[in-house]
Amino acid sequence: MDVTHIIDSLNPAQREAVCAPEGHVLVLAGAGSGKTRVLTQRIAWLIGVEHVSPWGILAVTFTNKAAAEMRGRVEAQLEMPGSGMWIGTFHGLAHRLLRLHWQEAGLPQGFQILDADDQYRLIRRTLRELALDEGRWPPRQVQSFINARKDEGLRPDHLQSLGDPWQEQMGRVYAAYEAACARGGLVDFAELLLRAHELWLNNPALLRHYQERFRHILVDEFQDTNAIQYAWLRLLAGDSGRMFAVGDDDQSIYSWRGARIENMQHFERDFPGTRVVRLEQNYRSTGTILDAANALIAHNFGRLGKNLWTEGREGERIRLYAAFNELEEARFVVETIAGWVAEGRARSEVAILYRSNAQSRVLEEALLRERIPYRVYGGLRFFERAEIKDALAYLRLAANRDDDAAFERVVNLPTRGIGERTVQQLRQLARERGVSLWQAARAVGAERLLPGRALNALDGFLDLVEGMAANGPGLPLHERVEAVIESSGLRPHYEKEGNKAEARLENLDELVSAAREYWDAEGGESAEGDILSLFLAHAALEAGERQADAHEDSVQLMTLHAAKGLEFPLVFLAGLEEGLFPHQMSVNEPGRLEEERRLCYVGMTRAMERLCLTYAENRRLHGRDLYAVPSRFIGEIPREYLDEVRLGGSVSMPLGHSGSRGGLAAVEAAGSGYRLGQRVRHPKFGEGVVLGCEGQGTQARVQVNFEAAGSKWLVAAYARLEAV
Ligand code: ATP
Ligand code: MG
């Protein structure tokens, strides 16, 4: 096999990493320097040149999508299938292990994955069972407590409260939650990792098997591994495994989820003889974008430090847009995209990044209005939408009757006369007898513990689910999903939902398509368990990465956290305001502020050609009006890299004083008699805010966003607008 092309396009430092002799390698390098590429080429090198079997390779990526891409690249280069390789996220790989070894892991075969939302509900129920007040024990706080302990590898009996009553109580909640999960055969995300770790710890023979198999372990985005993930890797590597990790301390953005930068420092100690390779050439961004990002991140202390340069062109300056409010900000974004598309560029080359998920709504509405197709990564993901979760809950019950979260979700959906009182009684009985809600419902029927009407309704539900379970096996997955949707009565239920009905029904159809795709991809069967359970796990794990129109040329919207590792020719960073970004909760803590700055660095370095930073001087978010000050991060970018722009043309203005409010906003709407952002009342449309103006005198038109009627262009002379 001719494999010279594997290293042809690499620079010397990259080549050193890809072709390193047997041993551990740590690639420490900045954004866009080719870390992911080097990791992919390393796999190709191992297989193509070192004749390692694909079967002996395990690679960890940041998303499932990245895993698929990596596998595709390796296969294309080697012109052979790499099906024996295990490539996936930590969660995906842990899940795979647990499916294969559910018995050794102490799980029921049909165990189901709890996503964050299900976990939250289950925690609330647990608090209720323990008669704890949610005001004093906020479920979100309990949730992060439990997940953080699991990320550290700690079970309830490992906790040492040292007489602290708060800790003690939390420990009790954790234990009760764990018991509820065990009863229902439920595994949350953090549990996947912890269980997979314990699986190996408790089964030395199994561990040995995997250690002998996976001699080559490769990890992307190594800076964001948490304690349990790192422990899992070390266990797998043992004495014979070879680690190849790539990472960038400046891009560590998940410490709030337990990620530990220190893992980068411990690596050399834990894996003796590590060869450290630094990559310094950036291939992604223009000189301006790179220099600006480097200048920003230089404000952080305690960095491992590196030099990043590019041979690429200097490129245009970074555009900075000061919007009056979030609506105008969205309008700028949308118009800039329209201009980009008019230049003949693709929408898929564009990403809009934001700090907080809630920011997406206004941006989405602006895109919808202009009919620009877009996709949202994260946020309300396809598999998180209510109707999808309802349908999945039926499927989950069909797969595992003891799944309490699913039971509660659909026991009376659509309404079938099973009231809250009945459910309360079931909960109580379940608690008393230590059984699942399903079993409690069965007992209630057998012992006739409820009045006749309630019993009939409950029996109807139990029969319905039993019917779904009985009709399932033997059918192709998508037919099974379709049948469950039909018999559940969810369709007629959602048809009644007015203006949202159509989208919901479309989503249900899309679920059937997703099942068909999954069925086809798996070839109709799988060695790792029954296909329905696998599909449900897939739904929980891949939530954000598959959406309706995946093939349409569309703009990408996502949080900064989700953008890690990706690159786009045109990038917007929206909402650069103090309190929003850096986030309010981080501004007073130096450590967290540095993490926000790294997040900004990650965002900026996603851009290849053009970068636009925007902020709004007024913002309505979570229903509150905020008067915002531009983010300090804007002030940390040297002004020679910035270009202040206005809507409707790139009128370049000198910046008064970088990062200050003075002279930044174009608030005057010349000639129209209205100010941008001014509140006005229209006799027919009611109250709204002036968004824009064009033309002069009798030709002048003004755009108003009415609270009830939405955004409209009106001829100023006839509009009879009143200032309010
Ligand atoms: P990040 O830190 O953001 O994850 P990274 O270090 O993983 O970035 P890659 O995504 O691997 O960087 O590479 C960035 C871009 O540079 C990609 O488009 C990649 O194809 C390109 N690239 C990397 N190395 C080279 C090279 N030697 N020659 C040409 N292009 C390269
Ligand atoms: Mg990368």
Automatic annotation (TrEMBL):
User: Pfam families recorded for this chain?
Assistant: PcrA_UvrD_tudor, UvrD-helicase, UvrD_C
What EC number(s) would the UniProt record show?
5.6.2.4
**Would the keyword DNA damage be found if you checked this record's keyword annotation?**
yes
Q: Which reaction does it catalyse?
A: ATP + H2O = ADP + phosphate + H(+); Couples ATP hydrolysis with the unwinding of duplex DNA by translocating in the 3'-5' direction
> A Gene Ontology CC term for this entry?
DNA helicase complex
GO annotation terms (biological process): recombinational repair; response to radiation
Protein origin, superkingdom: Bacteria
Q: Where is the UvrD-like helicase ATP-binding domain?
A: 8-286
**Among its keywords, does the record have Cell wall biogenesis/degradation?**
no
Entry keyword set: ATP-binding, DNA damage, DNA repair, DNA-binding, Helicase, Hydrolase, Isomerase, Nucleotide-binding
Name the InterPro entries on file.
DExx_box_DNA_helicase_dom_sf (IPR013986), DNA_helicase_UvrD-like_C (IPR014017), DNA_helicase_UvrD/REP (IPR000212), P-loop_NTPase (IPR027417), UvrD-like_ATP-bd (IPR014016)
Domain UvrD-like helicase C-terminal, residue spans: 287-565
- Residues binding ATP are 29-36
**Molecular-function GO terms, alphabetical:** 3'-5' DNA helicase activity; ATP binding; ATP hydrolysis activity; DNA binding
Protein family membership = Belongs to the helicase family. UvrD subfamily.
NCBIfam families attached to this UniProt entry: PRK11773.1 (NF008743)
Q: What is the protein name given in its UniProt record?
A: DNA 3'-5' helicase
